[in-house]
Design a protein that fits this description.
The chain is an alpha+beta fold and 223 residues long. The protein has ten helices and four strands. The protein has helices spanning 13-24, 46-49, 73-86, 99-132, 139-159, 173-176, 179-185, 191-195, 198-208, 211-222; strands at 5-8, 30-33, 55-62, 65-70. InterPro entries: Glutathione-S-Trfase_C-like (IPR010987), Glutathione-S-Trfase_C_sf (IPR036282), Glutathione_S-Trfase_N (IPR004045), GST_C (IPR004046), GST_Phi_C (IPR034347).
Length: 223
């Protein structure tokens, strides 16, 4: 049995980020699915493992090393970026030794957090979650958030004219953090916003076709 366990709801973006990071770094682990709709993450035995009741993912290696990823976006991003530093894999190294380059990676993680994620999350709510629950999307909200996302993607298009990936010449956490939202958005009419921008479209195709991410998608689809 794997020494590490990852607890989470496979369809949640936080869990998907953690899964992608662990698979990218070829870390051996056991995935333990949680049903958030029943509040399973707030019950035993998960509650004993968790430092905070609001946690929806817990990565446990030993009593000396615990990584807790919460619903809070900031904490999720800090932890999946941290995994890149803890589990350095020479074959899929996502770390730049040069401080300036690693600083660029951190900057674009922040951009995703503060500028890409807010409209992306609202669009996912309107175009994915609402229809699943038999509710119509709010067209005014969709139009407003599409405009915000389009503005962010314009910045991305310019950025990607100078580098293949968001953090430079290789895949890093700055790219990985976008994957869960892309998974949902590319299955909605919002997909056109990405396709209309050549560099962004190429970047999306490159990061979503990675073998580790394909495994995550299989897990989500199977559920």
């Amino acid at each position: 049995m794997a020494a590490r366990k990852l607890y989470g709801a496979v369809e949640s973006r936080a869990t998907m980020r953690a899964l992608a990071s662990l698979l990218e770094h070829e870390v051996e682990f056991e995935f333990v699915p949680l049903d958030l709709s029943t509040g399973e993450h707030k019950k035993e035995p998960f509650l004993t493992l968790s430092v905070r009741n609001l946690a929806n993912i817990f990565l446990h290696k030993s009593i000396d090393f615990n990584v807790l990823i919460h619903s809070c976006v900031d904490e999720v991003e800090v932890n999946h970026e941290m995994l890149s530093h803890i589990y350095v894999n020479p074959k899929t190294n996502q770390i730049y030794m040069a401080p300036k380059m690693q600083g660029i990676v951190s900057t674009w993680i922040d951009v995703e957090d503060h500028h890409f994620d807010p409209p992306a999350l609202k669009l996912i709510s309107e175009l994915v979650y609402k229809p699943k629950n038999g509710l119509p999307p709010d067209e005014m909200t969709v139009a407003s958030e599409e405009a915000k996302l389009a503005g962010v993607l314009d910045v991305y298009e310019e950025k990607l004219t100078n580098s293949e990936f968001m953090g430079g010449d290789k895949f890093t956490s700055a790219d990985l953090t976008h994957l869960p939202s892309l998974h949902y958005l590319m299955r909605t009419p919002v997909k056109r916003l990405f396709q209309e921008r050549p560099k962004v479209s190429t970047w999306c195709a490159a990061i979503t076709s990675r073998p580790a991410w394909a495994k995550v998608v299989e897990m989500v689809v199977e559920k």
